[in-house]
Fold this protein.
Amino acid sequence: MRTGLSKKQKTTSVFFDEASPIIEVCTYNTSLKNRLSEYSGKYPSECRLVDDDENGCLTFEIRKGRFSFKLNAPYSAERRKAASELAKKNIKNLQQGKK
């Protein structure tokens, strides 16, 4: 969808305070919109679409405890190397299995 907005203008905003049991998520991100839309369809008592600005941004309300942020520690050089070697090994095994 062409909105006339630059990628920098297409933000995702998450609003909440300590008093309210609701988190508000406003996003242009297609993957997040799809995931939230699917979730709101399955669990309407936990999440609902509250606004569609018709420029590509959807706003959802979600109960606290249903939305989370995941922080990952940076990988060490050793862990990156081990992951790379494992991926190369898996690709090689897959290629050998196809022959």
Q: What stands out?
A: The chain has two helices and four strands.
